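Q: Entry one of two.
A:
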Amino acid sequence: MKKAVRKRESALMRSRKKWSFLFTLPWLVGAITFFVIPMVQSAVYTFCDVTLTAQGESFRPVGFENFFQLFSDPNFVLNLQSSVLTTIYQVPVIVLFALFSAILLRDQFPGRTLVRAIFFFPVMISSGVVITILQQNLMMNGNTTDQQQAYLFAAPSFVYFIEQLGIPQFILDVVQKVLSSFFNILWKSGVQIILLLAAVNHIPSSAYEAADIEGATAWEKLWKITFPMIAPNLLVVLIYSLIDSFTDYGNLVMVMIRNYFSLGQYEYCTTVGMIYYVIVLVIVGLVNFVVGKRIQYTVDN
């Protein structure tokens, strides 16, 4: 009897494995077609001089020449530094703004559905003609060697006001960048708000009711209930925001890659892309390692 039961269970497990493989097969085919093969081709490009001929592409091995040219290129170093610094100040603001918005949108108030739609509106049109026009005409200007980020709104008057307070210059620079790029930050917060809104809605109301009975303040409920229970989602939002910032249309390294590609320097733009990919991968891995170690995925009663 036991052998028959085990045999049926084994057959059931084999059937589940077969169907699970079929469900993951489209992802596997897509990953190989659109990620693995292009990555291998890109790695080949970085060690070659690529020339377009009538017969197709001509490859001439040059070893590490493209890498030597890259790290001696002052534009790449400056653009990479600008991209990292922009991400450092933008991502925390985006995450905090998304968290604050999600907590506000959780409560019942007149017009809540409309407000939620407004916050998510940039995501709905982010792949259309409108965002392309905004990106090309408002978010970036300049050329390959002198890229400067443009903003839809600027805040010179407020910066002039706080300059009179004797605040250090590096803090003024950060404040000016955050205020001037607030439209861009708001534009990038739609997905993060939705993810955190789903997380805060998942918190049982009984936890807040028990905290109210114990006399907990709103600040204590935030740090003792809300923050620990949405910490895994915050990590997802943080990593998403990092990748989104590093691959943004106005990111100077991404602009550099597109410009070199348009000039036909395929091997050089591929080298820039591969090195940039490795740097972003290392940064995201470090953030996941450092922040992930401090997250509890279960909350003790």
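Q: Entry two of two.
A:
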Amino acid sequence: MNVLDNPKYSHLLKRQPFYHRIGKTLLYNWAKFIFSWYTPLSVFGRENIPNDSFIFCSNHNAHLDVIALSLSANKNFNNVGMLAAKDYWFDNAFRRNIMKPVMNLIPLGRKSHLGKDITFEQTLELSNSFMNVDKRCIIIFPEGTRGQPDVLKRFRKGPARLSIGTGKPILPAIIIGSGKSWPKGKFIFKPGKIHVYILEPIDPNSFTIGYKNNEKDLFKTAEAMTKELEEKIKSKLRELT
């Protein structure tokens, strides 16, 4: 079966049922309310947001980061997707039926489950189809997991590979304050200011001149893009802290 025909992923390819869209709109408005007084959000660099689909990448310190980025880009939760490990989020009925449509989760295979998971080419197909509806965007955290405030982990090549494969730009951003409001390991978050700094986008086309569609070129191109993304975010983080 073609991955685009799989009913598991129908939430990514078209407008979702009315009750899903209403629920996510209400959740988005609730988030705007919370981020206006409890964890006040300030956004800088909105002029850098492309007038089309993009891949949002930032440092990652708290569960609040997804909401902060969505609000920063004025993207309703209907128009934001996230890559998620297929074996964890899609192969469990509860997570698949509850969280998948709420978060617009896009399945990503992991090497530890090779043979049972989706291929990266299929993830690209789904990501492309998702972003081609209503200029949607995808959020990916290059560090792969939450870290300590103002401390960056090594960046992975996943966002660059997705950008090369879809032709969509990466939009780098810095989030300051979320890790102090909701430290890793804590159950609830506390009041505190959050700042998001949106940087200039990185166009994959500037890295793919002379690119040949083979593993060697893909690795080299993704490595170069990842290096630029990491340096942009590191440099801005040093400037801010």
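A: Comment on entry two: The radius of gyration is 17 Å. Residues 215-240 form the longest helix (26 residues).
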